[in-house]
Amino acid sequence: MYLEHYGLKEPPFKITPHTEFFYAGANRGATLEALIYAVVHGEGLVKVTGEVGAGKTMLCRVLMEKLPATIDTVYLANPSLSREEILLAIADDLKLELDGARSTVLIRLLQDALIERFAAGRQVVVLIDEAHAMPPESLEEIRLLSNLEHGHHKLLQLVLFGQPELDTKLAVPEMRQLRERITHSFELAPLMRTDIKEYLSFRMRTAGYRGPDIFSASAIKLISAESEGLTRRINILADKSLLAAYATGKHEVTDSQARAAIKDSQFRPARWKRGQPYLAGIALLGLGLGLGLAIPQVGHRSPVTAPHSTAKPERPAPSVQPTTTVAPTTPAAAPTTPTSAVHPAPLQTAATTPDVVSTRLTAGTELLGTANAGEFAIQLILADRDNEKALTRFLEQAARSVPLDRLYIYPTQANGRHHYGVMLGLYPDQQSAMQALKQLPGELLSHRPLLRTVGGIRKEVGEKISIAANR
To answer: Residue ranges of the ORC1/DEAH AAA+ ATPase domain (predicted)?
Structure first.
């Protein structure tokens, strides 16, 4: 209805998953990359949790598109299937001839088919959406399927997508065998205000918008607070805000339209007394054009917290863009190599080093040019390249806990914007990098660091890094 008004080719804030609108900022892109790695390298059982409307289904759909062509995907959208129905659904997707086979025979047929595909160089991954709603007996069947092996290789990869209730369900003693088979756990945390600004701009421009940013800072602040960072709520509020602005002939979404959208959405009890004219405009416009504005409502929930932890208040937005932790759930072990050690004693800080950003950027470029592609680093943050003061402050903070000469900066892009990545490293393997990550102090862990390979960073920065190894 407002597409021509804003020069859009399609609605920018549909709540149904549309993979072209996948936002790779915050922890989304990093989680996708880690999921692809886990599936391709046969990591067995993987779990992804997030609040209602956090974007789990979108992530699942994008994962299906991004996996290599040698991987066959089985998508189970109905979590209420019985044990036998799960087997039948997988077998049906793999086009197996069943002829009314019983469960025991069905498992053998499935294993034979998986071995045949493995011999042909193919893998099979089962993606289970809404896994928190699975009955215990079906989860037990998932555990048994995770045991299917050929030699030293897993024949079936399984990825569970679910709400935080999945962690509660897996925490009971009866589920410990399944819980211990989960090699990686990822969390889709709510977007923060700085992420939401980028998210709104990204969705608008993906839909064809080419003008200046439409959402004012005050509107973004209101949408951020009301949505609690959940992408589905953001989409609903942004769509209604655009409609309210269109109804009054405006091109910018201000706090007035945002308040009207908030009141109409009723995610929480009504608190706003302003914005009534805009609500009336939305209603009259809808009646005049025969458009219903009924949009599914989402019950109030607090932001998602990490598995097996108590809920904490939402963390205020830092001055640099955070990343999210992408790490296995295996217990941390003491470091075994000198390279994985993180020194807690205060060392030289950025304040005592002249032009620290330029110095560490040069060091990062040289490091990425000579290091092995399989080595690991800990990506601490992505920082806006135009805010060098904030980056310098972060380096000063980090240098109180880790050696400054082990902090490296590299240029990159995220959602069309230039950033600097700050990494700590290098580490010879994933285990030593994970040990070092778990030993980071709380002020660095609060930025949600993640593990990256040198090869992955090189692909990301592309021509910006001269690979000295190829000289």
So the answer is: 42-170
- pLDDT, one tens digit per residue, over 398-424 is 888 889 889 999 998 754 567 788 999
Cis peptide before 426 (omega within 30 of 0): yes
**DSSP bridge pairs for 127:** 75, 159
Query: What's the helix, strand, coil split of the chain in %, to 5?
Result: 45, 15, 40
CB 154 within 8 A of CB 146: yes
Rounded to 5°, angle at Cα 105 from 102 and 111 = 135
Residue 142 has pLDDT above 80, yes or no: yes
The topology (CATH level 3) of 327-470 is Alpha-Beta Plaits (3.30.70)
Question: Which residues are registered as beta bridge partners of 186?
Answer: 48
Residue 290 — left, alpha, or beta (φ > 0 → left; ψ -120 to 50 → alpha)?
left
Tell which CATH classification among 3.40.50.300, 3.30.365.10, 3.40.30.10, 3.40.50.620 matches the domain 27-188: 3.40.50.300
Q: Report the distance separating Cα 409 and Cα 400, nearest Å.
A: 17
User: CB–CB of 323/381 below 8 Å?
Assistant: yes
Residue 42 pLDDT > 60: yes
Query: Is there a contact between 87 and 108 (Cβ–Cβ < 8 Å)?
Result: no
Percent with pLDDT over 90 in the chain: 41
pTM of the model: 0.58
